[in-house]
DNA sequence: GTCTATACTCTGATAGAC
DNA sequence: GTCTATCAGAGTATAGAC
């Protein structure tokens, strides 16, 4: 909805988006059906289409919400802060997001895997702009000898890759670990160790 | 085909599987259609179903082939070898596979993302068994002080995550890097640096 | 072995009663 | 605002000619 008015409209709209996130993140865009979303939402299929003009509109609404949430932790990396603290803070925040919002992580992964048809412009625009700015900061810290030298953009890729892996490949991680493990708690400790060793000047 | 006989059967069967890999890896199972696969293969839709009994049979055939290829580089890690050489060899081989077989990597990623409905048994079986065995080797090397101590299984996750990221998120990597980059060449150098720092005793 | 034609099901979306 | 009924199109799979 462009401008939800009543509370009931807002509530139903939110219910639909939450159900759609469940379904889209598990099956991808084309693998999901309005019937599935309607059932999870507890609403009829025509009622979904009363709130959103089409299946694609629901998907687009989710992706739009997503990108801002996605960029926030990186935005928070402060050029005035202590380099190691700022970077490790980003690593831990990103992992927390993977733990707390795995559906969003999978929705994003599905979209990128399939060539980012609906989100490529945003990646080439906002995302690249932000990454370029943060890379300049990282490079500055390296030039000052505050952290070990390396290609900054690949450091960022490594943070994304390692944190999102525990959300996107959750099924595999749990199957390989076996019972009696807490994947995200272990990941938190391991990534702390990994990035501290990597960044040590 | 359970038992391809003639050369023409083998050839068409391979053509279909190659086309199906193109389509399934780009759109996921449900997002792909027999029409798309038939067009890429240059065959008619009924002809596809002459060689394979169903769409799902084609997908399953691809996944079965996949798992062995997937496990080979890890199998090659030799307990008698020099620890750092063996591990770095695995990292580089895995990245080469991501570079040379990105479709296979995405097919696997799609399957895991969607809860591994058709491959979970293999992951809990063959894959876990192999990982457990290799973790024992890694742990032994750590106990000997040959490499730095860390949870072995998370080291393996890190290798998978970082190498596959460059194949699975290729679109995003290229969009963020911008023109004039060779993602896999840069990744090869960066991962070499990362894992050497991580493993240094 | 390969094609045209088609049966049948699923799915996105609309019409219209309430 | 929400529902039942339904349409139109896409998609998997089969029948049968060649």
Describe what you observe in this structure:
2 copies of one chain form a homodimer. By secondary structure, chain A is mainly α. Chain A has 2 domains: 1-53, Homeodomain-like (Arc Repressor Mutant, subunit A, Orthogonal Bundle); 63-199, Tetracycline Repressor, domain 2. In chain A, 78% of the residues lie in helices and 0% in strands. Chain A has 10 helices and no strands. In chain A, helix 1 packs antiparallel against helix 2. Chain A is globular, with a radius of gyration of 19 Å. The structure holds a DNA duplex (18 and 18 nucleotides).
In short:
Two copies of one chain form a homodimer. Chain A is mainly α and 201 residues long.
Topology summary:
2 copies of one chain form a homodimer.
Chain A: H1 7-31, H2 34-41, H3 45-51, H4 55-75, H5 83-100, H6 102-113, H7 120-143, H8 152-168, H9 170-177, H10 183-199
Helix pairs in contact in A: 1-2, 1-4, 1-6, 4-7, 5-8, 5-10
The structure holds a DNA duplex (18 and 18 nucleotides).
Q: In sequence order, what are the helices and strands of chain A, one letter per element?
A: HHHHHHHHHH
Q: Terminal Cα separation of chain A, in Å? A: 51 Å
What's the tally of helices of chain A? Answer: 10
Main interface by residue count:
A-B, 49 and 49 residues
């Amino acid at each position: 909805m462009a401008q939800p008015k009543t509370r009931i409209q807002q509530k139903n709209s939110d219910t639909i988006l939450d159900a759609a996130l469940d379904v889209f993140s598990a099956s991808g865009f084309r693998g999901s059906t309005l019937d599935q979303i309607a059932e999870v939402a507890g609403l009829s299929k025509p009622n979904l289409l009363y709130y959103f003009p089409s299946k694609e509109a629901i998907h687009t609404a989710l992706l739009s919400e997503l990108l801002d949430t996605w960029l926030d932790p990186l935005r928070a990396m402060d050029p005035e802060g202590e380099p190691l603290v700022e970077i490790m803070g980003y690593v831990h925040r990103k992992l927390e997001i993977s733990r707390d919002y795995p559906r969003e992580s999978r929705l994003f992964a599905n979209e990128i895997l399939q060539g980012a048809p609906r989100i490529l412009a945003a990646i080439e625009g906002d995302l690249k702009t932000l990454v370029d700015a943060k890379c300049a900061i990282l490079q500055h810290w390296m030039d000052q000898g505050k952290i070990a030298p390396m290609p900054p953009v690949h450091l960022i890729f490594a943070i994304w890759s390692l944190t999102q892996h525990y959300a996107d490949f959750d099924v595999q991680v749990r199957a390989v670990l076996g019972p009696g493990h807490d994947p995200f708690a272990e990941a938190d400790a391991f990534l702390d160790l990994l990035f501290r060793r990597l960044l040590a000047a």
